[in-house]
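Deliverable D2.4 — example input (structure tokens):
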């Protein structure tokens, strides 16, 4: 049996007719840049995320960069975030000229630890603390970070909150949607995200009208009107084809997220029935709506050998992420060393993402658990 990590062809079969009709219309119109298609998608996505404003941009990575720019963050500033995330979270901070400052994660959810966040700020000199301008919590794997204490700390120090919700569209924290809790929310339409385009795309949600205006200005080289530039932005535009695909897919998203949750529940049951729940750490569901962009298990021993074994059995898996960001070569200048973020480092050594996409059949999940059981029994 084959169980790929993700099978986008299965999803495409469901929506093919609708998508091709929309793409045809856009090809006939030859209007590819921003325009009504992007505006419609922004309105629909703002509604879905329960955020007052949404601005389509070129990618999730650019969403983070443009949010930081709109918040006025640049050289001389520090931004706090998790070292256990996709590179773009911290890369964006460095790209705008600010310094990433890492804060360790919670061992059970892999999200920013609110106690560590407060401790990091308390441990700074007043001069350092004055340079801290923002916090980027990441809602990793589709589950929201523990936002209430994070928001409380940010209020105390007057810090901008930029949610990295690239993996968490529709995820909820105490009934609040990812991207609606901070000053900004950053989303990605990279094909492997729960709401994927046919290429790159992204979105920034924001609370204020003023920031909405600023994001729209920066997305077009700070230009208003044409050829008069108020700020140095960039080309962060989303194209109409990608926006149309996202808009066609949006009505399906809740059904797909429910199917992912069902798969996660079935995995849990199967791991327990197989007596594996003591040997393999299962994802901890702490927040009110986890949308399972990834189903990530913790393998205390021989994680890489398990991954190789699964590959020989035609089962796809992936390590998100094998190296904590404070240990990356490109961040050596930040001066961190191994041991600085032990929870993140241990996660990098032990986590393994299993297939959880909506179209999986129960037999496929049973096969995955069976093969993991075989590996564990062999010792
Ligand atoms: C995917 C992702 C991004 C970047 O999104 P792109 O659209 O690929 O640029 C940023 N942060 C996290 C946590 C992601 O998973």
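Example output (designed residues):
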């Amino acid at each position: 049996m084959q169980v790929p990590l993700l099978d986008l062809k299965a999803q495409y079969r469901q929506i093919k007719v609708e998508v091709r009709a929309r793409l045809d219309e856009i090809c006939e119109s030859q209007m590819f840049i921003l325009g009504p298609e992007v505006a419609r998608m922004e309105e629909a996505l703002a509604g879905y995320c329960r955020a007052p404003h949404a601005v389509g941009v070129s990618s999730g990575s650019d969403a983070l960069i443009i949010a930081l720019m709109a918040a006025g963050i640049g050289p001389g500033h520090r931004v706090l975030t998790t070292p256990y995330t996709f590179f773009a979270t911290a890369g964006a901070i460095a790209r705008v000229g600010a310094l990433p400052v890492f804060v360790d994660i919670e061992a059970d959810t892999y999200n920013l630890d609110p106690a560590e966040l407060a401790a990091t700020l308390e441990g700074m000199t007043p001069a350092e603390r004055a340079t801290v301008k923002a916090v980027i919590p990441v809602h990793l794997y589709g589950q929201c970070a523990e936002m209430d204490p994070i928001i409380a700390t940010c209020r105390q120090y007057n810090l901008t909150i930029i949610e990295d919700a690239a993996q968490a569209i529709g995820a909820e924290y105490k009934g609040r949607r990812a991207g609606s809790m901070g000053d900004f929310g950053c989303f990605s339409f990279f094909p492997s995200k729960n709401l994927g385009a046919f290429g790159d795309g992204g979105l920034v949600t924001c609370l204020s009208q003023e920031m909405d205006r600023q994001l729209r200005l920066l997305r077009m080289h700070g230009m208003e009107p044409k050829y008069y530039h108020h700020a140095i932005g960039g080309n962060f535009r989303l194209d109409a084809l990608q926006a149309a695909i996202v808009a066609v897919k949006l009505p399906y998203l809740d059904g797909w997220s429910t199917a992912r949750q069902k798969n996660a529940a079935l995995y849990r049951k199967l791991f327990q029935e197989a007596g594996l729940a003591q040997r393999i750490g299962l994802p901890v569901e702490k927040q009110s709506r986890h949308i399972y962009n990834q189903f990530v298990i913790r393998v205390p021993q021989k994680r890489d050998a398990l991954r190789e074994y699964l590959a020989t059995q035609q089962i796809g898996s992936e390590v998100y992420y094998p190296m904590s960001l404070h240990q990356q070569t490109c961040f050596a200048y930040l001066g961190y060393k191994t041991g600085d973020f032990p929870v993140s480092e241990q996660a990098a050594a032990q986590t393994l993402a299993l297939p959880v996409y909506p179209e999986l059949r129960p037999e496929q999940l049973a096969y995955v658990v069976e093969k993991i059981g075989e590996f564990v029994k062999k010792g």
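The pocket of pyridoxal-5'-phosphate is lined by residues 59-61, 85-86, 88-89, 138, 164, 166-167, 188, 190, 200, 202 (CB under 6 Å).
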